[in-house]
Amino acid sequence: METPFERNVPAVSQAEQLLLSRKKVLVIGCGGLGGYMIEYLTRLGIGDITAVDGDVFETSNLNRQLNSTPALIGSSKAAAAAERVKTISPGTCITPVQAFFDETNAEELIQDQDLVIDALDNLSSRFLMEDVCEKQRVPFVHGAILGWSMQITTGLPGKRVLHKIYGTSQEQSRIDASCKTSLAMTPAACAAIQAAEALKLLTGHEPSLSGRLLIFNLKTMEQLMIPVK
What we know:
Layout: H1 14-20, E1 24-28, H2 32-44, E2 48-52, H3 77-88, E3 93-97, H4 106-110, E4 115-118, H5 123-136, E5 140-146, E6 149-155, H6 161-166, H7 185-202, E7 212-217, E8 222-227
Parallel strand pairs: 1-2, 1-4, 2-3, 4-5
Antiparallel strand pairs: 5-6, 6-7, 7-8
């Protein structure tokens, strides 16, 4: 009898697939990036996913957010993500948190996680995430999108990559911190790269984007790989 994740092997080993089933991943944001990230993590076989978002779907989300439908306008993004996970993989433990990520819950949410996925849409929350990840020694994978463009990096404890990329005064990077303006394929493509980095981290392999910022433009198909030191 076929099992849900057997086609992941041999791209990952059977031992690594078992390891993934024991991992806990926090996804902060369930919109464009977050919706696709939760989808990819579920299909990779991550055993425990926490999905955090205090927002509800709006009509303007329909162009790019995987879980948005006209019937769900006004409904919780975190709850919708959890319902989708249950239909795909009933064995996955999915915990929806219908709250915005902030100083009141950051410590508790990140505590005991193996990895954090940054699917946020503002710099102050990203800085808070990095600060708490640093304190708790939890790695994270950052993604940001704008129109045709995306950027991705991996943050390891001690590296402080977001503060190096964005500066300490919340200045703008090459791509705006907001994920609210993009085409349908941009969050999907960005999340796919984030998921690849997540998979390497969770299975004990060296991430490719630690200390490097990947910037990719889907319109020109040009990329920049910038050292982050």
